[in-house]
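Bench log. Compound arrived from synthesis this morning; before running ITC I wanted a structural hypothesis for how 3-methyl-2-oxobutanoic acid sits in the protein. Inputs:
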Amino acid sequence: MPDVTLTTLQSLKAKGEKIAMLTCYDATFAQAASRAGVEILLVGDSLGMVLQGHDSTLPVTNAEMAYHTACVKRGNEGALILADLPFMSCATIEQAFANSGALMQAGAHMVKVEGAAWLAETIRLLAERGVPVCAHMGLTPQTVNILGGYKVQGRQENQARQMRADAIALEQAGAAMLLLECVPSELAAEITQAVSIPVIGIGAGSATDGQVLVLHDMLGLSLTGRVPKFVKNFMVGQSDIQGALKAYVTAVKDVSFPGNEHGFSA
Ligand code: KIV
């Protein structure tokens, strides 16, 4: 496929064609996933859990994110590389500049930051300096200790109203993309309609502009044995990993994944 850029993603949204994203942490999987047609490789800080074996993403450092971003860059064949800014890497604007600069220099085309409207100024300043930003809203794993666990967000009307307003504020600040994690499907559909930038969902129903899963989850691998409701094992019915990656892309594109059973109600 031709190299995926922000313009590609915007035109996929405009055409109503779903965007396939997967997490990816190394060169071999970057090659396999990009060859399978995955448009966005997310170097997620979930690597702290699935690669490093931590019980949260909090221990991950920006240097580790840059290392894995560079690995993914070496294997990638045309996908857009999105790299996570890890816990406390954006606490000040100086940190946001330095840490996002390191990820972009390692090979990222866009960075992802967890948070809501309070990030507007950071996103604006990064975008002005050439760093496209994806804002990760809803369940933000880096704030698990504030949220009191990995829980669906936006179920109450006041929370839902706030999330809709935050999404619009972040688009206005210059966010290039939104990612919604574990939010009721109906709310995710409303937010997707309300903004003109692409919205990617995980546990957010089928109406978002695209989907993301953690690579290990969709290959049926689990360190803890706990499989979130929004996960589907794409190895089932496939004889190899390449087949599973292609089946994921097909299912996202033809909207057979996610099904109702993978989503949450308000
Ligand atoms: O780090 C990650 O893998 C993520 C996904 C769960 C969206 O942010």
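What the model suggests: The mean pLDDT is 97. The longest strand covers residues 133-138.
ITC booked for Thursday regardless.
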